[in-house]
Amino acid sequence: MVLLMSLLRKYRLRHYALPVRDSRDGHCFHMVDMFINSTYCNVDGIRLIHGAKCDTCGICVDDTNMKKANSKIPCKAASTKHEHMRHHWVQGNLPPYSDCFVCGEDCGIEKALADLRCSWCKSTVHDSCATKTDICDLGRHKRFIVPPNCIEVKWAGVKGTRHRHMEVKHVVHPKIDRWMPLIVICNRKSGSNEGELLLHSFRDVLNPAQVIDINEIRPESALEWCNLLPDVNFCLLVCGGDGTIGWVLTAIEKLKLKNPPSMCILPLGTGNDLSRVLGWGEGHTGTINVANILSNIKQSQAVHLDRWSVEIRHEKHFGFSRPSKTYIMNNYLSVGVDALVTLNFHRQRESWPALFAHRLINKFCYFTYGTKDVLERECKHLHRRLKVELDGREIELPELEGVVILSIASWGGGCQPWGTGATEEGWVTPK
Question: Which GO BP terms apply (predicted)?
Answer without folding.
Answer: phospholipase C-activating G protein-coupled receptor signaling pathway
